[in-house]
Amino acid sequence: MRFVRGASTEMTPSHESQLPDLTALLPAGSAVYVEHPPKATLGQVVHAALAVQQSGFLATPHIVARRIPNAQTLRLALAELRSGGVEQILLVAGDVDQPAGEFTSTLEILESGILERSGITRIGVAGHPEGNKAVGPMLLWEALKVKQSFAERTGITMHVVTQFGLNASAVGGWEREVMHHDIRLPIHVGIAGPAPLSTLIRFAIQCGIGASMRTLMRNLSAVGSVAELATSPDQHLLGLLAAPLAPQIVAPHFFAFGGTLETARWMRLVAAGEFDIDSSTGRFNFPRRV
């Protein structure tokens, strides 16, 4: 499947030891995002990102504004990343209630001037097809416009990575809003990789994915079914590809939820077309799965 050939995925710093296996599964140059989970330090994220870059991938460390203690720490981290060849980051605010330091949002980091002076050339920012539990929809659109203006002003390449969801129709509606608000940034659609439903629910609750959780609760209480939800990556892909994709949607990004290698194996099989579609369920089958 051509659309998946340009896909990205993610890993945590604790999974750095899996990089030799990952290089056998993903093409060289694939973007591999390095998460910043609550128990990890920024230094550990930087160390893992450098290892990802050295493994032949496009390392994309998460820079979480609300977990950075001060501007100097950010400057030093970015300098270390650049010295190791890392040029791309994902800049997000973070969901911690109490900021660790002076930054409370991604906009404050953009306004600081630190990124322009760092040598970072590509920045990913977040998109929220199902909203954000902490920020209203108008503020989300206004923030995206400011970020787009930053990219145009500085010449730094920027793209959007959307939050994953379980509502298969949410991305289509959000696409129309993107055009309405004149957001022209390339979009990488976030899709949950292969994971148990319990894991998806846990992360959906943590991320405050409103439409998905409302649909889920309605289905479970009414009929004990989750048929309306896209609970697997193949359901999301088929839903996306059922209609012509907007030109801005360039690739999927698969959230791994700790299952980096399993997600990468799934991506490899789909990208190679080593699957068929079950006519009764509409799900992918992998006859030669390894």
Quick description:
The chain has 290 residues and is α/β, with parallel strands linked by helices. It has twelve helices and ten strands. The protein has one domain: TIM Barrel (Alpha-Beta Barrel).
Question: Which helices and strands occur, and which strands form pairs?
Answer:
Blueprint: H1 2-5, E1 9-11, H2 19-23, E2 31-34, H3 42-54, E3 58-64, H4 71-83, E4 88-92, H5 106-112, H6 114-118, E5 122-127, H7 137-154, E6 157-162, H8 170-180, E7 187-192, H9 197-207, H10 210-222, H11 233-241, E8 249-255, H12 260-271, E9 276-277, E10 284-285
Parallel strand pairs: 1-2, 2-3, 3-4, 4-5, 5-6, 6-7, 7-8
Antiparallel strand pairs: 9-10
Task: Describe the structure using short key phrases.
290 residues; alpha/beta; TIM Barrel; 12 helices; 10 strands; globular
Q: Helix and strand string, N-terminal first?
A: HEHEHEHEHHEHEHEHHHEHEE
Describe the sheet with the most strands.
8 strands, parallel
Strand arrangement across the biggest beta sheet:
1-2-3-4-5-6-7-8
Given as residue ranges, the uncertain stretches (5+ residues, pLDDT < 50) are 222-227
Approximately what portion of the residues adopt beta-strand conformation? 15-25%
Give the overall shape, derived from the CA principal axes: globular
Total beta-strand segments: 10
Mean pLDDT, to the nearest integer, reads 89
Instruction: Classify the helix fraction into a percent range.
Output: 40-55%
Per CATH, the architecture is Alpha-Beta Barrel
Number of helices: 12
CATH topology: TIM Barrel
Alpha carbon gap, first and last residue? 18 Å
CATH class: Alpha Beta
The computed structural class is alpha/beta
Q: How many domains, in number, for the residues?
A: 1
What integer value in Å does the Rg equal? 19 Å
